[in-house]
Amino acid sequence: MTTTGREQAVVLGGSMAGLLAARALADFYERVIVVERDELPAGPVHRKGVPQSRHYHTVLLRAGQVLDSLFPGLVDEFVEAGASMPNLLLEARFRLGGYQLATVDTGSLAIQLSRPLLESMVRARVAALTNVKIVDNCETTGPHFTDGRVTGANVVYRAGGRPDLLEADLVVDATGRSGRAVAWLTEQGYPAPAEDRIKVGIAYVTQLLRLDPNLRPAQDMILVGPVPGRPNGFVYAAQEGGRWILTVVGMAGDHPPADPEALLEFVARSAPPDVLDTIKAAEPIGDPKVHKFPASLRRRYEHLRRFPEGLIVTGDAICSFNPIYGQGMTVACLEAEALHRCLATGDTDLAHRFFAEAATIVDPVWQFNAGGDLALPEIEGDRPLRTRLTNRYVARLQRIAQHDPVVANAFIRVIGLLEPPTALTRPGILARALLGGRSR
Ligand SMILES: Cc1cc2nc3c(=O)[nH]c(=O)nc-3n(C[C@H](O)[C@H](O)[C@H](O)COP(=O)(O)OP(=O)(O)OC[C@H]3O[C@@H](n4cnc5c(N)ncnc54)[C@H](O)[C@@H]3O)c2cc1C
Questions:
Q1: Are residues 240 and 318 in the same domain?
Q2: Considering Cα of 315, then 318, then 323, then 328, what sign does the dihedral take?
């Protein structure tokens, strides 16, 4: 531990971004307190503050790497707890832009487990750190300011409604997309960050299923993405406890119905016949669950000239990505690493340095997603020449990736955030795009 006079840090919000930030802070502060409004369950149980947990949550390849470096051995523990780890693309089927990626051994293993199990296992690891305390049933009403600097967090313990001040050298806001950091800042006379939005009009409907093991499909994960003219798709994946999760997504108002029979008809619009058969043969567990997501939202904290000392913001509170790309938790992992790097080089100008690093993480992901969204004519938005050319190139590559294992692997690495989207324009891939396109 390198604390160098840093006594206490407080993290607001105990979901993935808050837990990961706490892990980073624990290497630098004598004490780290995580404040969470919900009552935290002992095990993998859904809770009110994370309603999206009922829906499919992928742990991208990059997140698997970061989680295992922050918490050594955690991925093995996921497997012991029942997570499935299909080999991409031998045991997982991806259909992107209407084309199925070639069946090839990429050497990469996906991690599939339910969001509550993932979060509860990360939380257990964070709670086991000797200098971290997680306080649940405790709501923050905002940072505490002294002479324009944040010096702690105001909280209210939900049992009894007792208010308290938790003093802190650093407060990290990880209260998610609907967190109130912007209001807290403007109330103190600080400017609000500019916001970028992409209206995607998404609805998720998720049904858990139990499968007859004899009817198990050849792959442990099947993902079909939207295409122009059909802005919907689904993912069907094995999880712990012998359960399968079917998450159906529709964009631009083309929403899946929550009625089980009508949902099957909706899935039939995009599901290959063999997959549809196994879904139909499965036994539903509980009722379908619905989640609406109107727009991707990015807050440009990196552009603010004035920002209080002693505070940073992380996770979905900075950027809430279109969930169909499954990147939010990976970006939270990368932001935790960035926070670690920033703290390792001192406290001076911490917030500006952190927001600048976070922006370099968010930028390529946001741009790539915007391109993907705008490839669908159903999504509103400007399509400058660059976007149109990029989308034509990506569509061409997706067609080639049906047969070309190198291009298919390149997609898997970019989608998994192991590589930036620019990896798709490296000379080797560019050449395949040209030659592959010509030969077909
Ligand atoms: C439908 C859907 C599907 C998704 N699928 C994926 C996926 O496949 N892969 C992926 O990586 N990401 C996915 N995401 C994104 C992912 O859920 C988030 O990126 C992730 O949860 C990290 O968010 P966070 O911790 O910043 O905020 P959140 O998860 O929103 O958590 C905020 C926390 O703060 C607490 N809180 C809020 N206000 C207060 C307060 N005043 N005081 C105390 N506590 C407070 C809340 O109770 C909650 O625990 C998906 C999102 C949605 C909506």
A1: no
A2: negative
133: phi then psi, degrees, rounded to nearest 5: -125, 130
Residue that the structure tokens 């069946």 belong to: 103
36 Cβ inside 6 Å of ligand 1:
yes
Assigned token pair, 287 = 């009722």
Same domain for 136 and 53: yes
Tokens of 176: 């998610």
Count of C-beta atoms within a 10 Å radius of residue 169: 20
Q: Are 141 and 189 found together in one domain?
A: yes
Any atom of ligand 1 within 6 Å of the Cβ of 106: no
Contact indicator for 328, 320 with CB cutoff of 8 Å: yes
- Provide the number of structural domains found in the chain: 3
- State the helix-helix crossing angle for 61-70 and 16-25, rounded to 10 degrees: 40
Same domain? 162 vs 310: yes
Nearest CA to ligand 1 atom 16: 328
Q: How far is CA 245 from each of CA 149, 322, 393, rounded to the nearest angstrom?
A: 46, 19, 32
Same domain, 284 and 406: no
Residue 215: its pLDDT value, please?
A: 80
Indicate whether residue 204 lines ligand 1 (CB < 6 A): yes
Residue that finishes a domain, picked among 276, 294, 312: 294
pLDDT of the residue at 219: 92
What are the pLDDT digits (tens) for 205-234? Answer: 999 999 988 888 889 999 999 999 999 999
Q: Cα(222)–Cα(95) distance, rounded to whole angstroms?
A: 8
SS3 for 423? helix
Q: Are 270 and 232 in contact (CB under 8 A)?
A: yes
Do 364 and 226 belong together in one domain?
Answer: no
Report the CATH number that the domain containing residue 40 is assigned in CATH: 3.50.50.60
- Distance separating alpha carbons of residues 46 and 28, to the nearest angstrom: 31
160, burial (CB in 10 Å: exposed 0-12, middle 13-18, buried 19+): exposed
Single-letter amino acid code for the residue at 329: M
CB atoms within 10 A of CB 386: 10
Task: Tell me the average pLDDT of the chain.
Answer: 96
Atom of ligand 1 nearest to the CA of 315: 26
CA nearest 338: which of 324, 321, 355? 355
In which domain, by residue range, is 38 found?
8-58+117-194+300-370
